[in-house]
């Protein structure tokens, strides 16, 4: 496949300023993609754009990866109904260092340059910025943004000059990189289109050069209609200290059949023939969840590593009852302890309350009497696990069917 064919097949193309996306089938282009350090990790939402970057790299295009040390001090107002709280300088410094490490891990197989927009903004003076940037950005362009209109409307929360000016900062980022690194393309998520085309316009006004934007769609869970990457406990992070590899693996195992083929195209580097084969086998017997299993394995190995994926898959097999908990080795048991509440007890009432599966001893006993509790996959009504029901001195106590509602106990 050519670059344009693969980008289209994988579903990466949302909007572009190119007259034809086949431009990307020609000579290598230097492009940039950036993430603001509002947190110390990217999420699976960022991962979709990161996979588009990897696809462009595969076809010979050259990435500049930006950490927004300057923009992170202001905060992007787009999509926000009220003013963001400012992040301290020290926190931004720490966050951008963490993001740079994630860049190195995700894109480590290719050549890329990491830059920080704080480096070109830290010595810029206010009057210089107004003359060199602000003078060339029409107010009509800024006031026409949807988020500005909503924030300035009668029921809006208002907007500060700092957040209103965010688009100027990002536009200058594109101009600076165009002049210093020969960047002619910005890639972004669909929600960054307005900020990105402002840079295209600024480059044209100041230099007469042509620059372009390519945006990837925001991933929507078609089964729920919600933005992809959110769970009951919050965002799904790429940092293993925020979302463990096992939780990450299980997130992908739980995706809906309706979405799994699209996710295989976006979030893995598997080729078309392999994905078609996986989907075909999955559709022949959906209960086996073969497509979800391949998706979970590929994404977890990509974001973490092969060893972390293997451990996550092993833990999942034990938590789902596919393997006896008594067979788990020490490394697997330690990973289980990181992912679900763990206690040294055989008292089920104590385990349910301590593990947060019951609010009181009374509720725990009611759940037992109502046959809502299982021990190692077996319905249980007794308050203490009998020795013969332990597996190598271990048991998984579950409320209902979801393995997130599980407590691990050891004798």
Explain what the structure shows.
Helices cover 46% and strands 12% of the residues. The chain is an alpha/beta fold and 411 residues long. It folds into 3 domains: 3-216, 3-Layer(aba) Sandwich (Rossmann fold), CATH 3.40.50.620; 231-322, Tyrosyl-Transfer RNA Synthetase, CATH 1.10.240; 340-410, Roll (Structural Genomics Hypothetical 15.5 Kd Protein In mrcA-pckA Intergenic Region, Chain A). A hairpin with a 2-residue loop joins strand 7 (230-231) and strand 8. The mean pLDDT is 90.
CATH homologous group name of the largest domain: HUPs
Percent of sequence in beta strands: 5-15%
**Name of the top-level CATH class of the largest domain:** Alpha Beta
Shape: elongated
What share of residues is helical?
40-55%
Main beta-sheet strand count, sense and barrel state: 6 strands, mixed
Main-sheet strand order equals: 1-6-5-2-3-4
Distance between the termini: 57 Å
The helix count comes to 19
Determine the structural class based on helices, strands and strand pairing: alpha/beta
Report the C-alpha radius of gyration, rounded. Answer: 25 Å
Query: What is the number of domains?
Result: 3
Poorly predicted runs are none
CATH third-tier fold name of the largest domain: Rossmann fold
């Amino acid at each position: 496949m050519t670059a344009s064919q693969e980008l289209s097949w994988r579903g990466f193309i949302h909007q572009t300023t190119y007259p034809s996306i086949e431009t990307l089938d020609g000579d290598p282009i230097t492009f940039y993609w950036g993430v603001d350090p509002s947190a110390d990790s990217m999420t699976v939402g960022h991962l979709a754009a990161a996979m588009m970057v990897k696809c462009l790299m595969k076809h010979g295009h050259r990435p500049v990866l930006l950490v927004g040390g300057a923009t992170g001090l202001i905060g992007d107002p787009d999509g926000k109904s009220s003013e963001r709280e400012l992040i301290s300088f020290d926190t931004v410094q720490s966050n951008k260092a963490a993001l740079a490490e994630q860049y190195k891990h995700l894109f480590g197989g290719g050549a890329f340059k990491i830059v920080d927009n704080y480096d070109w903004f830290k010595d810029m003076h206010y009057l210089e910025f107004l003359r060199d940037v602000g003078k060339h950005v029409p107010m009509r362009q800024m006031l026409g943004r949807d988020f500005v209109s909503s924030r300035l409307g009668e029921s809006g929360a208002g907007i500060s000059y700092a957040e209103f000016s965010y688009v100027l900062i990002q536009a200058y980022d594109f101009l600076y990189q165009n002049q210093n690194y020969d960047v002619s393309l910005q890639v972004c998520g669909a929600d960054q289109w307005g900020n990105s085309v402002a840079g295209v316009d600024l480059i044209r006004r100041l230099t007469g050069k042509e620059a372009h934007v390519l945006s990837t769609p925001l991933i929507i869970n078609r089964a729920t209609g919600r933005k992809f990457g959110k769970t009951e406990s919050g965002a799904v992070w790429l940092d293993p200290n925020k979302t463990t590899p096992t939780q990450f693996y299980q997130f992908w195992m739980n995706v809906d059949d309706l979405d799994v083929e699209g996710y295989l195209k976006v979030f893995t580097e598997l080729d078309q023939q392999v994905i078609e084969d996986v989907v075909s086998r999955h559709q022949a017997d959906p209960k086996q969840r073969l497509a979800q299993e391949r998706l979970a394995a590929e994404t977890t190995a990509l974001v973490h590593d092969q060893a972390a994926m293997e451990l996550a898959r092993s833990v999942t097999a034990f938590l789902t009852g596919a393997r006896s908990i008594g067979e788990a080795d020490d490394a697997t048991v330690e990973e289980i302890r990181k992912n679900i509440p763990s206690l040294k007890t055989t008292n089920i009432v104590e385990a349910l309350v301590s593990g947060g599966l019951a609010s009181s001893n009374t509720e725990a006993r009611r759940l037992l009497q109502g046959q809502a509790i299982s021990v190692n996959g077996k319905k249980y009504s007794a308050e203490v696990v009998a020795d013969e029901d332990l597996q190598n001195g271990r048991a998984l106590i579950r409320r209902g069917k979801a393995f997130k509602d599980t407590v691990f106990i050891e004798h």
